[in-house]
Amino acid sequence: MVSDDATLPLDDRGLAYGDGLFETVLVYDGRPRLWDYHVARLLDGCQRLGIPAPSRATLDRLPRQAGPGLQVLKLVLTRGSGGRGYLPPQTAEPRLRWQCTPFAANERHWRDGIRVRHCALRLAIQPALAGLKHLNRLENVLARREWSDPETIEGLLSDHEGRLVEATCMNVFWCRGERLETPRLERCGVAGTLRQALLERLPISEVDADPRILNEVDALWLGNSVQGIWPVIRLDDTEGCCLAEWKLTDRHRELQNSAQQLLGYPVLPPAGVS
């Protein structure tokens, strides 16, 4: 299902410049998961970009448009048309578009883990946009073009100063000893809603980290608010050569099941149990 008017004119600033925001929300039988976190991030983005925000009532109606079962709601908010070149209009008339599509989670990745690699592309540092899910995602597109091997599921991104930031469409978590950690995102990267919910519920420290730290961690995960948490079983360099491997343990399941509960997914059995 899509919004009544899903088209965008060529002069829409979201289409022309990436001048806008988007959210992808897991919805089950019309009930959105982590909805307050998605709305809070969208409203924060509106404030920081200077785009008039939709009313909460308008936003709250959207998940109810989803059909039965598991769906993903994608909503896109642009500044609208107008202005001259990059100069935005003094009074913006934003456009809100949305669609709902059926979704099935990748249970094999939950159960068996995934292989990932480092990307050669480096993220630009821009604190004014850090954390936002804005429409300009060309860095992620270029990074995702770096590999075509279907066995490699995700790529890890660092910034221009060599700090680990995120994966192309997921946040990163790891365990060193008894310490759970995730990269700081004050300079760049997307502050995921699942990441925020986990930070509020678990003792996860936000740290500045060199990507080489991952070669020695006890466990590594990637996650977002649609797919949940995937454990990593192999990490490769930018050429596809293996840097580290992990066997799945119950330690992996602890973080995964915290995410499963937040998203309404089934709790996973202990590692090694089908």
Automatic annotation (TrEMBL):
Instruction: Print the keywords alphabetically.
Output: Folate biosynthesis, Lyase, Pyridoxal phosphate
| Pfam families, A to Z | Aminotran_4
Write out the similarity annotation: Belongs to the class-IV pyridoxal-phosphate-dependent aminotransferase family.
Which cofactor names does the annotation list?
Answer: pyridoxal 5'-phosphate
User: What reaction gets catalysed by this protein?
Assistant: 4-amino-4-deoxychorismate = 4-aminobenzoate + pyruvate + H(+)
Q: What class of enzyme is it?
A: lyase
What's the name of the protein? Aminodeoxychorismate lyase
Q: Does the keyword Magnesium apply?
A: no
Q: What are the GO MF terms of this UniProt record? A: 4-amino-4-deoxychorismate lyase activity
User: Annotated pathway, please?
Assistant: Cofactor biosynthesis; tetrahydrofolate biosynthesis; 4-aminobenzoate from chorismate: step 2/2
Q: Which residues cross the membrane?
A: none
Q: Which InterPro entries match?
A: Aminodeoxychorismate_lyase_IV, Aminotrans_IV, Aminotransferase-like, BCAT-like_C, BCAT-like_N, Class-IV_PLP-Dep_Aminotrnsfr
EC number(s)? 4.1.3.38
Q: Which NCBIfam families match?
A: pabC_Proteo (TIGR03461)
Its assembly, as annotated, is: Homodimer.
Organism expressing this protein natively: Litchfieldella rifensis
Annotated gene: pabC
